[in-house]
Known about the structure:
It is a single chain. The chain is of the alpha/beta class. Helices cover about 55% and strands about 15% of the residues. The protein has 13 helices and eight strands. The protein is elongated.
Amino acid sequence: MSIKTSFSIKDLENLSGVKAHTIRIWEKRYNLFQPKRSDTNIRTYDLKSLQKVLNIAFLLENGHKISKLAKLKESEISTKVNELSTINGDILHTINTFKLSMLNFDQKLFDDTYYQLLTQYSFQEIFNIFFIKLLKHIGLLWTSNTILPAHEHFISTLIKQKILVNIEKVKSQNQKTNKTYILFLPHNEIHDIGLLYIHYELLSKGHQSVYLGESLPIENLLEIQKVFSHIIFISYFTVEPNKNNTLTYLEELYDSILATRNERLHILGNNTAHLEADKLPPNVVLHHNPMHLIEAIE
């Protein structure tokens, strides 16, 4: 599979939030973009055009007028973006920069942006203010076929590396209680960034946390119960179990694992959004996001 370096006008809309109709107007009225056209007059845009529309969207969000921006050279637009982002550390600009690093497979740009953020924010703040929004947007880009698997894997791996580095800094702290948090993903679930971050938060707060990772069959948890006496389970459902099977999975997990010792399971993730808390099996607690879960535990 070739790396994606050209984009449709719909791709530009998905990546920037600027409507395709508006981009066409800018193109016609101000000659802001010079897309290539197919024999059937279908526009395609390069990465340079994408960066330009992201920059313009950012400046418009911060009070600039399109009529004035259209008169500027691309270098002058970039300068205004850099000046404005330096002044107020804008979230939109930072997330757009991370997206550009993803689309260009530019690890240096990702790292430079991340380390600049560290001069103003803690790692926890970076994850919750920037990375969560970025990952949600990437999920939308994925479902709309705007990005390739290679793009998603690239950015996810870089974020995961930052979590792992921070886990190394806290894992030797003294444990607060005799409770053990067991973190696992359901069978066939491989999206582990959210759960890995929860593992980091638990360790940083002095809890005993055991991270079991991806695609764990339910019966494996029986072995864990032989080792630890007071367990609180945590799991993250992104794509598995699918929405039609979520309740069935939770009921099976309750009957075979939780009920035996009256233990609790905390769940969160995209595939839990449709669940109603009062219809869950006993001892299953639903959370909206990682910080909601951490605050509830604390």
